[in-house]
Amino acid sequence: MQLTKLLHVQKPIIQGAMAQISRPELVIAVSNAGGLGVLTTTGSTPESLQADLKTIRAATKQPFGVNLMLQQTNIDSLLPVLLADPVPVVFTSAGNPAPFLQSLINAGTKVISVIPNVKIAKKMAALGASAVVAEGAESGGHIGTENTMVLVPQVASAVDIPVIAAGGIGTSAGVKAAFALGAAGVQVGTAFLVAKETPIDPIYKQLVIKADDNGTVVTGTGGDRVRSLKTPLTTKLLVTTDSATFSQLSSGSLLRAIHGDVDHGSFMAGEIAGAMTKIRPAKEIIDDLNQGVPTIIED
Ligand SMILES: Cc1cc2nc3c(=O)[nH]c(=O)nc-3n(C[C@H](O)[C@H](O)[C@H](O)COP(=O)(O)O)c2cc1C
């Protein structure tokens, strides 16, 4: 099925949730530009989530999504808000949404799961997810091990629900490539780090712009594998073998990056950072990504 039809959006472009970054200002800008903005709930309380939903609904009539990153410890407290006041789409990531997926669907919310491999994609399809985001390891933030180019076609042939490609997509050529691989749409994170509406320190945006094709590195293992820009912190993390020291250095490091702390921040970003050249309104980023993308795709 066409993603635009499934999500009631004009363009098959999703702004991937970014922890503590994809706040209402960015979500509103993306959804008003015809894409799908996705709100982060990292660090949210039930009250702050309610306030964020109110802010978004006051500023756009367009659909939007909410991310539940299942490593978060606040999921149980946020779920009742999303059940009482349903949103169009919930994106689950980094965990198994089985315990609550059906209750969201019963409330009228579509659930889309971010997955790192074919096995989990099949599991999410069987559980009733409306679509999956096949996220390759080119992505910024927490990543799996398989790359977008190999992951998307294999997931697309393994499941009957729409597959959204993510990881390394930040140009219209990348979007068209994703469709050629069998995707029904794309999820983009890194390219939106340099959106005018993204509430991060200008230093973070400038570091993304300055990065070249070789500008990111992966630190950590298992559930802690994270891709970020090469900075003094990643240099330290790469040589740290003691797990307590690693956790101490990493804890709170994204927030420090958001505040522009170059020495101690984890400036999460994907490999496509090398293609980012300037700060622009989210609408311009979406229009550029969508250039040449077929508007009518056969079901
Ligand atoms: C700074 C940053 C933070 C992210 N945080 C989250 C998150 O909290 N939850 C999530 O599901 N994905 C998160 N992601 C992944 C994005 O939603 C998206 O899938 C990914 O960025 C796509 O790859 P790209 O960075 O190459 O565009 C994050 C990505 C970045 C760059």
From TrEMBL:
A family per Pfam: NMO
Keyword terms, alphabetized: Flavoprotein, FMN, Oxidoreductase
Record SUPFAM superfamilies: Inosine monophosphate dehydrogenase (IMPDH)
GO molecular function: nitronate monooxygenase activity
Organism: Secundilactobacillus silagei JCM 19001
Domain of life: Bacteria
General function of this protein: Nitronate monooxygenase that uses molecular oxygen to catalyze the oxidative denitrification of alkyl nitronates. Acts on propionate 3-nitronate (P3N), the presumed physiological substrate. Probably functions in the detoxification of P3N, a metabolic poison produced by plants and fungi as a defense mechanism.
InterPro entries in the cross-refs: Aldolase_TIM, NMO
Identification of the protein by name: Probable nitronate monooxygenase
